[in-house]
Design goal:
Strand content of chain A: 5-15%
CATH superfamily of the largest domain in chain B: Alkaline Phosphatase, subunit A
Helix content of chain B: 25-40%
Structural class of chain B: alpha/beta
Number of strands of chain A: 14
Helix content of chain A: 40-55%
Largest sheet of chain B: 8 strands, mixed
Number of strands of chain B: 15
Radius of gyration of chain B: 23 Å
Radius of gyration of chain A: 26 Å
Largest interface: A-B, 81 and 79 residues
CATH class of the largest domain in chain B: Alpha Beta
Number of helices of chain A: 31
Structural class of chain A: alpha+beta
Strand content of chain B: 5-15%
Number of domains of chain B: 2
Order of helices and strands of chain B: HEHHEEEHEHHEEHHHHHEHEEEEEHEE
CATH topology of the largest domain in chain B: Alkaline Phosphatase, subunit A
Oligomer: heterodimer
Largest sheet of chain A: 4 strands, antiparallel
Distance between the termini of chain A: 48 Å
Strand order of the largest sheet of chain B: 7-6-8-2-9-12-5-13
CATH architecture of the largest domain in chain B: 3-Layer(aba) Sandwich
Shape of chain B: globular
Number of helices of chain B: 13
Chain lengths: 720, 435
């Protein structure tokens, strides 16, 4: 017990109040096989404690709409003019607050205030951010480097909009910030943006790449309920540990409980599923150990199998339901066959724990530490010697039906030796372009971090924030380190990057698309929300053995759910996913997307997941979501062709574009040029640029052409 | 591919620099983020490593590869491996040039039978469409933790880009589906969903005059950030823009334009998407694309097999025979390998008007690129149930094509995640098919 100093902390609350946990003292590496890389001189000031966040409370309320209808629901979130709520049956609702009676709009705002009051105070943010700066500063000094100079307001403005809301600011938003003389305008903007609608959208994009969010599973079965669930949990500010725990332990049918979607992705390949879990949530790469002892790390094939055994009693597919439905409905020819097949396929995707752990070592197991084909006893891996003394390692493996829950508890606990660090490191990379410990999917050895102390501090902030990713990002965004001007792409082969500032980076595919969309439509696009899961819930059958009456009810429910929304809606999973414009358009709640040049103009998070292969998003590197972290920033000629000549190029140079219309409103040519510069580059033009643009506008080019030119500059594509 | 790579692979700046320079020469795609590339070391090492198979018969004869995919599982018994007795299908056997038998559904192929090698002893274990297609396309079994590259990506890795402006790999009538595997995303095949449309967005939507003025203003306004900027990723995008402007003016684009093919030739290939796809493939390889996949769906014949062999099979028969004729008459067949692949065969038992999935034995075809003309490789047993003797696995078929294309087989490369991999997944090439 003594091996872990905070073992005695009795509650999570107290644990989080402790100044630094076991991570601060970087423990000795296990039999190291990796090269330590360039050495880093360390001079570490001690970070101050961060007071832990209080838990958020659930707010239930009877809401009344303008027509007098009432609904009992829990407040989940308010983004701009959009409210998210959840009823007791688990259905989620998203709609414009204009539909609510004024008192309830006020009530929603008060809920938001309550939630915001429960977030880190400005003093805590400032102190935690200052510690980041101190830690980074110390390591820079020790290595004879200097922090980058502070970013200009223009640079900061663009970066924070893209990082926190997933898109560039509109001309008006940019102008408002740049003209403000308030001394705390940066901190205020950060707070406004992390509570704006765009925050949830960009977090969804980020998680979709990490969690492999995909519209369809095998045979075109739509995973829309999973997407809706994830969007709802993000909007409701679900902490990362809770969100992950819910996904790993989710039970029931996919069409009924969207949270099962993450685990069901690997339903056909459960061992791969376990390897993916380890990489995604613990930053541990055990995929090699699936087939043989890891050649470069310490993981044995036995370690892998012992971890996988925690899922050995979990059943990810209910194949029997298809036969059961066929048998039950054989006599009744009035039931629509195609729909029955669809219902069978949908309901086959379900998670359930059985009473037997079935995993055995492979037939050709070749090591001496276990017998081939023998049953595997579940056991947890440890990274350091002291790990196994942690209370969370005290798991019971007696009840097979509880194995998955036991594992999840161990994995998502703040005490887990890697869980908090993994997500802290990934969130840092999201803001800076490079992680403290690269690569993010292999963080077994903390000593490889560019600053182990910084990594420990970030881990600590993550725990103090109770895994609220918004709060952690608020801290990071308020640091001078984040607000420094950007460095050119570092050569990590030469030396570790010590964070004199963020790194210049190309937009992600989603950021590029969303930035073009806001310029085409204005902030309207922030309220176009795709939610396709509720109708699919109509197909859900109860768990366990089913009756004919229940099948009939599901048929009736499904027909009713889809009757209102015309043909081709999500029932045809493939159509909904493949981008049938009609099928997709029916899935939108709130405002409807605009279609121009055969493209549906909605933000990336509100389009098929992922988009079709020739869509702008995919061409610019949106991942195919078959693997975690599949997005790329690679360049290609087809990208440029689309930007210049494709539908996107036409959309940019369209007179209906919001950016062009905003510019047209300006009275002087200089004002018009300035407006377009703000729209696309979030800055005002230099005198030279102004002169060039003026000359071209006199020489036959229009504002639409100038918009096209600005969108095609390299400056547009990169975040500085 | 993930941009997250093992730092241990990035420690040799020299290797990385050379790799980036090599990339910069191929314009259709370039992995622009040097510290995310991670392939550098592996690419360099593999590139210089002497191929253990160099100098053996057939090595490096195929400068280009056309990889046809008959999706759904082509029945071997009803096409290239006819049987008699209880397992015979609805079509009777006919003699092909080259002294072997085909079914009557393939009369045109029979006429060019002396130009191709039929591999009758393919064997695999996977009988599910998606995973079997994956296996046949990559030579590897599908995994949930890693994606494997196509032969086009392997070739680009070992041999570099195949052309100055055109892509090295193209996927026709199918999605590119992560064809780069663990290699940079720029190694992924360029998908062409409709051969008639060719490459999209190559023409400016505005007049030449406006386009020129736009380009002029762009050059001026981009001279700040895009000009002097030290960042190499920004510079990489400068190159993409330069290349795109060049490409739009260049005649290379004609490679994608089926309209510039004589009407008579277009007619010979037939109106189907597969026919026009194969014609496009021929144009692309003629112009410098190294690897072209062309997909043809609809081969999952559980029922109405006889009818569908006449329609779908008939189209395939004409198109494939035309392609081989065309390549041969242009003198391209000796340096171009054409492969007819399918994910599995179909059961010997004919029932319900068709046949079920059967991976244990099936047929593929190889033609050109150093492969024997008029040859049957291996055999299935009398029923068409299992290989008679040794079989050729999908991995081995990949190793065979890789060998023909001049790639080192049975040679490890290290993936960015640090895993050793070989083209064809350690299988040996089927040397018996080479001249």
């Amino acid at each position: 017990m003594k091996s872990y100093p905070y073992r005695l902390a009795l509650s999570v609350f107290l644990l989080a109040l402790c100044p630094l946990d076991g991570l601060a003292a970087v423990p000795a590496k296990k039999a190291g096989k990796k090269d330590d890389g360039p050495s880093i001189k360390v001079a570490a000031p001690v970070a101050k404690p961060v007071q832990a966040l209080a838990d958020k409370t659930q707010i239930w309320h009877t809401w009344t709409d303008t027509e007098g209808r009432k609904i009992d629901a829990m407040f989940c979130g308010l983004s701009g003019d959009f409210i998210t709520m959840q009823t007791k049956d688990g259905r989620t609702y998203h709609f414009s607050t204009s539909l609510l009676v004024p008192e309830d709009v006020e009530f929603a705002k008060s809920c938001l205030t309550k939630n915001r009051d429960a977030s880190f105070s400005p003093a805590i943010i400032a102190s935690a951010a200052a510690d980041i700066d101190r830690l980074v500063g110390a390591i820079l000094v020790a290595n004879e480097q200097k922090p980058n100079p502070p970013s200009s307001d223009e640079q900061f403005l663009r970066r924070i909009y893209v990082d926190a809301t997933g898109r560039v600011p509109t001309a008006k938003e940019a102008d408002t910030f740049l003209r403000s003389t308030a001394p705390d305008k940066r901190a205020k903007l950060i707070d406004d943006l992390v509570f704006s609608p765009g925050y949830s959208m960009q977090m969804f994009n980020w998680m979709a790449d990490l969690l492999r969010v995909k519209d369809t599973f095998g045979k075109g079965v739509p995973a829309f309920t999973f997407e809706d669930w994830l969007k709802m949990r993000i909007a409701a500010d679900a902490p990362w540990d809770k969100l992950v725990y819910e996904m790993i332990t989710a039970d029931g049918r996919l069409c009924d409980n969207g949270a099962t979607g993450f685990m069901l992705f690997d339903a056909e390949m459960p061992l791969d599923g376990v390897a993916n879990l380890m990489t995604t949530f613990l930053g541990t790469n055990m995929a090699c150990a699936q087939c043989h002892d890891h050649p470069l790390a310490d993981w044995k094939q036995r370690d892998f199998y012992q971890m996988a055994a925690f899922f050995g009693a979990t059943d990810g597919k209910d194949e029997s339901i298809k036969g059961a439905i066929t048998k039950l409905t054989k006599a009744d020819t009035s039931l629509p066959k195609a729909l029955l097949t669809k219902i069978s396929e949908m309901n086959a995707f379900r998670m359930e724990d059985t009473t037997k752990q079935k995993l055995t070592f492979p037939k050709d197991y070749k090591y001496k530490d276990a017998k081939p084909s023998s049953p595997v006893t579940p056991a947890l891996i440890a990274w350091e010697k002291g790990d196994k003394a942690l209370p969370i390692y005290n798991v019971s493996i007696k009840d097979p039906a509880q194995l998955r829950a036991q594992f999840s508890h161990w994995m998502t606990s703040p005490q887990n030796p890697r869980f908090a660090t993994n997500i802290a490191n990934r969130i840092w990379k999201k803001a800076f372009g490079v992680a403290v410990l690269e690569p993010v999917n292999d963080i077994d050895d903390f000593k490889q971090a560019s600053s182990p102390e910084l990594l420990a501090h970030l881990t600590f902030i993550m725990k103090a924030a109770k895994f609220d990713l918004r709060e952690v990002q608020r801290v990071i965004y308020n640091s001078k380190t984040y607000q420094a001007s950007a460095s050119p792409t570092p050569d990590l082969g030469k030396a570790k990057y010590l964070f004199p500032g963020p790194v210049v980076r190309r937009f992600t595919a989603e950021e590029a698309w969303d930035s073009l969309i806001v310029n085409a439509l204005g902030t309207y696009a922030d309220n176009v929300l795709l939610r396709r899961g509720n109708d699919i819930k109509a197909m859900a059958l109860p768990p366990g053995k089913i009756t004919l009456a229940e099948v009939k009810e599901a048929v009736t429910r499904t027909q009713a759910a889809f009757a209102g929304s015309s043909k081709g809606k999500a029932v045809a999973g493939k159509k909904g996913a493949g981008g049938s414009t009609l099928g997709l358009a029916n899935g939108y709640e709130g405002d409807k997307p605009v279609t121009r040049f055969s493209m549906m103009l909605a933000r990336a998070s509100e389009l098929p997941q992922p988009s079709g292969e020739t869509h702008f998003l995919r061409v610019w590197g949106q991942g195919d979501r078959l693997l975690a972290d599949s997005a790329t920033n690679d360049g290609s000629v087809p990208q440029v062709l689309q930007m210049m000549n494709g539908g996107v190029g036409k959309m940019i140079a369209d007179p209906r574009s919001a950016a062009v219309m905003d510019a047209t409103k300006e009275k002087t040519t200089d004002g018009q040029i300035r407006s377009l510069y703000l729209s696309y580059l979030s800055r005002t033009p230099t005198a030279k640029e102004l002169a060039s643009a003026n000359k071209s506008l006199k020489d036959g080019l229009g504002l639409t052409d100038l918009a096209w030119v600005l969108a095609n500059t390299r400056e547009f594509l990169f975040v500085q | 591919m993930s941009i997250l790579t093992s730092a241990s692979l990035l420690r040799e700046p020299e290797d990385r620099r050379r790799f980036i320079e090599k990339c910069a020469k191929m314009s259709f795609g370039l992995s622009i983020l040097p510290f995310f590339t991670g392939i550098a070391e592996a690419a360099e090492q593999a590139g210089v490593a002497a191929a253990p198979n160099a100098g053996l018969p057939g090595f490096g004869k195929a400068k280009r590869v056309i990889f046809l995919e008959l999706q759904g599982g082509m029945s071997h018994i009803d096409t290239f491996d006819p049987k008699t007795g209880a397992n015979k299908g609805p079509g009777k056997a006919i003699s092909a040039k080259g002294d072997y038998q085909l079914t009557e559904y393939l009369p045109e192929i029979a006429k060019i039978g002396d130009k191709i090698t039929v591999v009758r002893n393919m064997t695999a274990k996977v009988g599910v469409h998606a995973s079997a297609s994956y296996l046949m396309r990559t030579g590897f079994e599908q995994r949930g933790t890693l994606q494997h590259p196509t032969l086009g990506a392997w070739a680009q890795h070992f041999l570099g880009a195949s052309h100055k402006t055109l892509p090295s790999s193209v996927a026709v009538n199918r999605s590119s589906n992560h064809g780069n595997g663990w290699f940079p995303a720029s190694f992924s095949p360029l998908p062409i969903q409709n051969p008639d449309d060719g490459l999209l967005d190559t023409k400016s939507p505005v007049t030449t005059e406006v386009a020129a003025k736009r380009a002029g203003l762009l050059a001026q306004l981009d001279s700040g950030f895009g000009g002097k900027a030290a960042d190499e990723n920004v510079k990489a995008y400068n190159e993409f823009y330069d290349t795109t402007f060049q490409l739009m003016k260049s005649t290379d684009l004609k490679a994608f334009d089926l309209a510039s093919e004589p009407a008579e030739v277009r007619a010979r290939y037939g109106k189907s998407k597969f026919g026009q796809g194969c014609l496009l493939a021929r144009r692309l390889i003629e112009n410098g694309v190294r690897f072209v996949e062309v997909a043809n769906g609809g081969w999952d014949m559980h029922a109405t097999l006889g009818d569908r062999m006449e329609t779908l099979g008939g189209d395939f028969d004409r198109v494939f025979a035309t392609l081989i004729q065309d390549l041969d008459s242009k003198g391209l067949l000796d340096t171009t390998l054409v492969a007819v692949t399918t994910e599995f065969g179909r059961k010997p038992d004919f029932s319900g008007g068709g046949r079920g999935h059967h991976p244990l034995v099936f047929s593929t075809v190889l033609a050109g690129g150093g492969v024997k003309r008029g040859f049957v490789n291996g055999a299935s047993d009398a029923k068409g149930y299992a290989p008679d003797g040794d079989g050729v696995s999908p991995g081995s078929l990949h190793a065979t094509i890789a060998h023909a294309a001049g790639l080192p087989v049975q040679t490890d490369i290290i993936t960015p995640a640090g895993r050793p991999m070989q083209v064809g997944n350690k299988a040996k090439p089927a040397m018996s098919v080479f001249i």
